[in-house]
Amino acid sequence: MTPFLLLFVALATASPVKRQTSGLDADGDGSITFAEVSATMSLHEALDALDRDGDGFIYLPQIIELWGTGDKFYELNTDGDDHLTFREIENGMTLQDFYNEFDFNDDGSLDAAEAYQMNFIYDTIYNTAIDDPLDSNGDGRLSRLEVLSHMTYNEVLRALDANGDQRLGPNELRVLLGGETGQFMDDQDNNDDGFISFNEAHSHNMSLGRIFNRLDEDDSGYLEDGEGAGFYTVWTTILNSASTDPITG
């Protein structure tokens, strides 16, 4: 098992009290079979649930969040661009193949750790009563997949840039980063002018995923108990702007 999968299993099993039982587990035995999945969704419906920006594409960061590796992205990406169309995915795999990608130990069923993403997809499809712009599956916390599927790093930077000068001061950054603002300034302000230009914001391999990790103060793998509050402010600003970017990470 790769280090990512070991970490994923550890995170998924570390706080069982907070994990909600999904209706996907029809017989309540704690594992998800392919029969339970195929009875509730098609591959197209699963992809549609993952396509949070509604552009009909799935991007590399989303594939990595699903399966811990980008191998499947490159395997299915027949035209070599920066995204997978639903057609590319559906031509290259079946719902059974999709399910099997989560079965890390190849035992024919998904245990609680392996099933998290499938439960997320199921809840996104069926829990239409959720009144939360980011928490797609209604579990009361934000996952990396939920954040990365809704917004890009560039959109976040523009949303924080209150005066439109393409640089961010501490007060602008604090909307999202809160107590992490000072450390972010120290790390990214390469010319020490007290501001983070958009170019500086991308330096040192900084990304939206790394922002998520900084906000995840308890290293649970989720933003909860107020850790993700800034993303709601940012998302509201993005929605009120004229346009959004494709989700590329």
TrEMBL record:
**Which residue ranges does the record assign to the EF-hand domain?**
24-47
**PROSITE patterns assigned to the protein according to its UniProt record, in alphabetical order:** EF_HAND_1, EF_HAND_2
Q: Which Gene Ontology MF annotations are present?
A: calcium ion binding
- Per its UniProt record, what InterPro entries does this chain match? EF-hand-dom_pair, EF_Hand_1_Ca_BS, EF_hand_dom
- List the Gene3D superfamilies hit by this protein, alphabetically: EF-hand
Q: What's the protein called, per UniProt?
A: Uncharacterized protein LOC118427372
> Per the record's keyword annotation, is Signal included, yes or no?
yes
Query: Which controlled-vocabulary keywords does the entry list?
Result: Calcium, Signal
Please list every transmembrane segment annotated in the UniProt record, as residue ranges. Answer: none
State the superkingdom: Eukaryota
Q: Where is the signal peptide?
A: 1-19
NAD as UniProt keyword: no
